[in-house]
Q: What sequence folds into this?
């Protein structure tokens, strides 16, 4: 992601340690000279009380901002684990917002396209009405609302997060090469993939030039669906890799899940790009980046 902003080294507390975004923040932060303090469950248990969370953050050297890269992300399991999802996605972020307010420092919080019901036919604006259709989406919306009570909070909604390192759709597809001859993949859920590098860069851009608010951050490029995303992954694979599976389109009804998914959840990112002077990369180009990560 290109940006017009100069990079000033800063100190950040990052909630989350081993997740995709946390690792991407580590890589991106190192290249910028930032000092990041990563707090996992061993050092800051987000299921604990607000006092415990605040004490863990207070033990750090003086920090310039807090980035919340931790969340309950098990969409299907959230249907039966509502309390746990709400604790991690609403209650803990509210505690982080109050801590940040007490220190008068910015807070970055990550949210999701699943706050929308998927009935639109054009990309959702940050100002569009929310109406989540599953427990995970409701917990993330509640977290947004809790965080946005703090004037220096920035919420970044994103979608279809992946890279070449973690456990995600891209790496699952990459490992299928040579293992299976055919795949049946949902083709009636539309959106845009987002590489973790794009989201990590967006976090730093929002902190270098603070302009609190609610924004959408995804990679740019054409709106796609999961089956075509899989085809793009296979088509852009480096030469010499094993057999490429044949992808067959199926509908969501052919692959029922405990939690409903929005049929359309593409996000409009123009407000973020204009506000922070950033050009978000084409997701097809970022698939090439993910392949380079995967085969390294």
A:
């Amino acid at each position: 992601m290109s940006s017009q902003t100069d990079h000033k080294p800063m100190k950040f507390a990052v909630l989350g340690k081993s997740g995709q975004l946390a690792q991407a923040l580590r890589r991106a932060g190192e290249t910028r000279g930032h000092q990041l303090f990563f707090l996992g469950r061993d050092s800051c248990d987000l299921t604990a009380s607000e006092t415990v969370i605040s004490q863990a953050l207070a033990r750090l050297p003086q920090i310039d901002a807090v980035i919340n890269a931790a969340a309950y992300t098990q969409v299907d399991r959230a249907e039966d684990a509502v309390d746990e999802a709400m604790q991690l996605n609403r209650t803990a972020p509210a505690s982080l917002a109050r801590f940040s307010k007490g220190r008068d420092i910015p807070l970055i919080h990550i949210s999701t396209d699943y706050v929308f019901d998927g009935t639109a036919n054009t990309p959702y604006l940050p100002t569009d009405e929310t109406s989540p259709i599953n427990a995970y989406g409701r917990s993330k919306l509640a977290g947004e609302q809790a965080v946005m009570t703090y004037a220096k909070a920035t919420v970044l909604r994103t979608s279809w997060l992946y890279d070449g390192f973690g456990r995600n759709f891209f790496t699952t597809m990459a490992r299928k090469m040579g293992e299976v001859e055919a795949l049946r993949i949902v083709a009636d859920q539309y959106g845009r993939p987002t590489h973790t590098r794009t989201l990590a860069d967006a976090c730093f851009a929002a902190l270098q030039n603070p302009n609190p608010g609610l924004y959408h951050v995804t990679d740019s490029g054409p709106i796609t669906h999961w089956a075509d995303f899989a085809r793009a992954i296979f088509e852009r694979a480096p030469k010499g890799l094993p057999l490429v599976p044949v992808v067959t389109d199926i509908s969501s009804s052919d692959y029922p899940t405990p939690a409903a998914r929005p049929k359309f959840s593409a996000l409009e990112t123009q407000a973020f790009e204009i506000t922070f002077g950033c050009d978000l990369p084409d997701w097809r180009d970022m698939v090439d980046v993910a392949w380079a990560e995967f085969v390294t």
